[in-house]
Write a structure and sequence with these properties.
The protein starts with 42 loop residues before the first helix and ends with a helix. The strands form 2 sheets. It has a 7-stranded mixed β-sheet. Helix 4 links the parallel strand 6 and strand 7. It is 34% helix and 17% strand. The chain has a single domain, classed as Rossmann fold. It has 9 helices and 9 strands. With 354 residues, it is an alpha/beta fold. Bound molecules: S-adenosylmethionine. S-adenosylmethionine binds next to helix 2 and strand 4. The site of S-adenosylmethionine has 20 residues, from helix 2 and strand 4. GO terms for molecular function: methyltransferase activity. It comes from Echria macrotheca. This is Trans-aconitate 2-methyltransferase. InterPro entries: SAM-dependent_MTases_sf. Pfam families: Methyltransf_23.
Length: 354
């Protein structure tokens, strides 16, 4: 049975808690030309230039390295949205950077943040574990230079074999936050993480589901926000970057060989409808993040894969924004956190010698 048809364990709404890291590839060092002359006419220069030669379309900029792989922009508007979303996820998680049982008593020595974005999480985890080497990877060189000495960023395509070298194996903790739309095959991502982890190391994936729900009413499929999510899912499948996997992660972790797999699901109000201050704030931040993100989420996917013009997309987004502001029905989106451990001892079948 394909993964996509397996329901996630423990994911009935009743069981939910209503609480609601450029790519200068530094490990593969660029060999210096022994006959180099002064002046900048080297492979180094062209590599750096190609990373920064952003693709421009729809009034936005998109990553240059492996251009076309990711459908979200990488301009200031998107970076601000990313940082706001990061703040939101921290509030959802009660200021925790992770839920996996890593701690300062037995601190991780190597940490990998795949698709690190602006690198905020990598910086903060680097501050928390100053003895750990932290690497954040991304397609775009959008990370801050102001990082702790133990944190570095690398341009790397997570869909391909990750870099090799000492720092890229025997990792104690691998983290992916809000990376849907980046991957062609989540199973391949989990398999590679499993391979790169040290025995006993942890993988944690934190991700929003791409639909809304309610405990008060049935939100009809023709609700503009639900329809937009459905269109986004369809375009993402056509783009070979499916975005609907969050509810399937737990099962996928187990299938990939992880043990002690935990899933925690948070309900995130889509605007300020809740009564309580904290949840109201979470809803307002989510709504703001979505408003900022709607054009960037939609332009490339809907134009390239659904054939819509930017004018048609803008018209559609008017209704989506209205639906986003609708408080009746108390809509929420689920946020999934799944973590699991690579066994200390390999499964028995791996130990059988031919
Ligand atoms: C929504 S952002 C999230 C960034 C960060 N994890 C956070 O939560 O703030 C997704 C990031 O994935 C990166 N990305 C997309 N496809 C990628 C790929 N194939 N390999 C590495 N990074 C990728 C994008 O450049 C973007 O920075």
């Amino acid at each position: 049975m394909p993964f996509d048809s397996i329901p996630s364990e423990g994911s009935s709404p009743a069981s939910f808690e209503f609480t609601f890291e450029f790519y200068l590839d530094r490990s593969r060092r660029i060999e210096a030309d022994p006959n180099m002359s002064s002046g900048e006419n080297s492979d180094t220069q062209s590599l750096t230039e190609s990373i920064y030669a952003y693709h421009e379309q729809y009034g936005r900029t998109y990553h240059a390295y492996h251009s076309g792989s990711y459908n979200m922009p990488n301009d200031m508007t998107e970076l601000e949205r990313m940082d706001n979303q990061y703040e939101l996820t921290k509030i959802i998680l009660d200021d925790r950077l992770f839920l996996a049982p890593i701690n300062v008593i037995r601190p991780p020595r190597k940490i990998l943040d795949i698709a690190t974005g602006t690198g905020r999480w990598a910086i903060e985890i680097g501050d928390k574990f100053p003895e750990a080497k932290v690497i954040g990877t991304d397609l775009s060189p959008i990370q801050s230079d102001l990082v702790p000495p133990n944190v570095r960023s690398e341009i790397d395509d997570g869909n391909e074999e990750w870099q090799t070298g000492e720092d890229w194996f025997n990792i104690d903790y691998i983290h992916l936050l809000a990376t849907i739309g980046a991957w062609s095959d989540w199973r391949q991502i989990l398999a590679q993480a499993y391979e790169r982890l040290a025995p006993g190391g942890w993988l944690e994936v934190q991700e929003f589901e791409t639909d809304i729900d309610s405990d008060h009413v049935t939100i009809p499929p023709d609700n503009a926000l639900r329809r937009w999510f459905a269109d986004l899912q369809q375009a993402s499948i056509l783009a070979d970057r499916p975005i609907h996997h969050a509810p399937l992660f737990k099962r996928m972790f187990i299938e990939a060989g992880f043990v002690e797999v935990h899933e925690k699901v948070y309900k995130v109000p889509v605007n300020g409808w809740p009564r309580g201050h904290r949840l109201k704030r979470i809803g307002e931040l989510w709504s703001q993040s979505m408003r900022e993100g709607l054009p960037g989420f939609s332009y490339a996917l809907f134009n390239r894969w659904l054939g819509m013009t930017t004018e048609q997309i803008e018209v559609l987004l008017v209704d989506v924004r209205k639906a986003l502001a609708e408080k009746r029905g108390c809509p929420y989106e689920r946020f999934y956190v799944v973590y699991g451990r690579k066994p200390e001892t390999p499964p028995v079948e791996d130990m059988i010698l031919d």
